[in-house]
Amino acid sequence: MKSIASIILVVVLAIAAGGDAVAVEGMFPVSGLQALDLKAAGLAIDPELIYDPDGLSLVDGICKLGGCTGSFVSDRGLILTNHHCAFRAIGDASTAEHDYLAEGFAAAALADEVPAVGYTVRITESYRDVSTEVLAAIEPGMDPMDRTRAIERRMKEISLAFEAENPGKRAEVSEMFQGRTYVLFVYTYLKDVRLVLAPPQAIGNFGGEADNWIWPRHSGDFSFMRAYTAPDGSPAAYHPDNVPYRPSRVLRVAQEGVAEGDFVFIFGYPGTTYRHRSSHYLEHLRTRIMPLTVDWYGWQIENLEALGAGDRDRELALASRVKSLQNTWKNYRGKLQGIARLDLVEARRAEEARLQEFIDRDALRRKRYGKVLDELAEYYRKEDETAVYELWMRFLGRSPQILQVALTVWENAQEQLKDEADREPAYMARNFDQTRNRLQVILDSYDEGADRLVLAELLRRGGDVPRAQGLRAFAGCLGSAGAAGAAALLDRVFGGTRLTDPAYLERALAMTPDQLKALDDPLLDLAEALHEPTVRLREDRRRDKGRLDPLQAALLEARQEFLGTRFIPDANGTLRFTYGYVEGYSPRDAVRYEPLTTTRGLLEKDTGADPYALPERYREWIAGGSFGPFGDAAEGGVPVGLLYSTDTTGGNSGSPVLDAHGRVVGLNFDRAWEATINDFAWDHSYSRSIGVDIRYVLWVTWKSGGGQRLLEEMGIPWPGADTHR
């Protein structure tokens, strides 16, 4: 039963004075769509055709692909998603001899499609509210850490019980409103995903980091992948006998595209937003978390790029790592600028001052909410005190990739001693294949020099982190005074470990703690020494969450009462809906951005040098007007980029942009620079999402050797084969 009664939303559609519908804020759970007047907004089809809780609808053609979104565009499991979502798979398949990142990739037939190791496809099947069941685990007077543990265990128990009764399905309980509402989502997981087609990086990432988060945009950020199953249709790991997945719903691609003013909507799996958090949280991010992250990621980008310069194999091995760092680094810089530009912290403080006055005017409200804001202020004051150490430890556990592997191996040995429902999620039997695949992906592109460089810098920076001085693992190795000790540690760890051997790693993952100790591997010894402080930090986080959840739930209730409305739950990686219009905006005085770009702009930007180096054959096709049915020279050629007023965030990468008839007209991949603040605040005046126009996707696919079979598969007519090269 697809029903979430506790979070059904009451939303009033905003209508402009002239009668024109405008976009509204909202990454809506699909359970709330019935409250929206989508016909008045511009939807041309019956709303039940986009979401039907009792039958097939467009939403059944949407999937989650890794950390992105994808859509099924053929009945043979063909998935349309972003180039940057497939980036790691493209890089993994590339070598200096066969450089698919630089040259592009197009499988000539099913047998030539390349396994994308570590990728999974997740399809939402159903969901139901389980808030009462989850919250029943809380007992009066429970310690904050015990409260968090009880909720976590109950969430796992509900998921495991469902899976036991429904073999072949995956179930996960997600927290919708912090500390208040919980929903059980049921998924089909597909484990065999393959790369089908990707344009050259100079097309898929035209403009590079210079244009990232920037409009106007001319990136052909798309790729095709395919999901496979066992011959009987059941989910299965890669096997040469597997067959293409048969989705229950396929999205139709509309090669005519869209025009300015057209209604569009998006389904996808947006990551995490924080719109219901307090001013104290925003201030904590602004002054602690984001500046430290920007600094550390910037250092890694600069040094890893320098490490790969002049060595294409090494550059390819580091490419996915650097790209991920770049995306977060620029995103955080945009958020910091957005918080300052909107004076967001002060605006939230002013609202909270009015909220406190509202609370104080009523005795019952004073009793329920009177101290919430003060307690939140105290909570984040303590968070500020521990932020530097906690971030340093987080970077330590993630940035040196081989240390991440060692920590995972050691923790797995500890977690396997526990009952399934008490384990950390990554080490539960149901999730462990993904954990193993993640480690294999790290080894596939492992670069010892990069990890040595990164760990050395973290040890140097640790000298400025007082709490780090107490770590026995790094005694005498931190800061400038510990340079000699750090060098000796690095030589011992990197020179003596065998964890870079996949076979050795596989054996280690099956061992007990005592067996790991007996290996006498210096990297595993380091992981053992770091395990206790890592677990202690995690337990501190649980205690903090146990304190924060009731405060955040009370703040939400008070704000809803104060504002006289109900809120949309923050994005949390679950399926959401948003709508808007193809429209430009004005980022600053006397500047107006139009909502569509064309291949004419590619020629205008082309410098012949990275990041604006248009491949020669594309330059010739565009200059020669070789657009087929996908463009018109009189209109600037083929439309490339789209700008629209939907409400999106990370995780919406790869979401199909659908027109009023429910057809794919674009592919979401970014937001405008001003909209990086969307995680904290959305406003129609500046919040714009960026997508690649479907006409450009189809044109590039047509021009790609091997791409014509995909056009046929999607039912798209294309000119004769003699004109495709």
What descriptive keywords fit this protein?
14% strand, disordered C terminus, eight-stranded antiparallel sheet, eleven-stranded antiparallel sheet, 2 domains, alpha+beta, Thrombin, subunit H, 725 residues, 19 strands
Describe the structure.
There is one protein chain. With about 725 residues, the chain is of the alpha+beta class. The chain folds into 2 domains: about 5-120 and about 190-270 and about 575-725, Thrombin, subunit H, CATH 2.40.10; about 280-560, no CATH class. It is about 40% helix and about 15% strand. It contains 24 helices and 19 strands. Helix 9 crosses helix 16.
Please give the structural blueprint.
Elements: E1 28-29, H1 38-41, H2 47-50, E2 62-65, E3 68-72, E4 78-81, H3 87-93, H4 100-103, E5 105-106, E6 114-115, E7 121-129, H5 131-135, H6 144-165, E8 170-177, E9 181-190, E10 192-198, H7 201-204, H8 208-211, E11 223-229, E12 243-244, E13 263-268, H9 279-308, H10 312-341, H11 344-360, H12 363-369, H13 372-398, H14 401-415, H15 432-444, H16 448-461, H17 483-496, H18 502-508, H19 513-518, H20 522-563, E14 576-581, E15 596-598, H21 599-605, H22 616-623, E16 639-644, E17 656-658, E18 664-671, E19 689-693, H23 694-703, H24 708-714
Antiparallel strand pairs: 1-14, 2-3, 2-7, 3-4, 4-11, 5-10, 6-10, 7-9, 8-9, 10-11, 11-12, 13-14, 13-17, 15-16, 16-19, 17-18, 18-19
Helix pairs in contact: 3-10, 6-20, 9-10, 9-11, 9-13, 9-16, 13-20, 14-20, 16-17
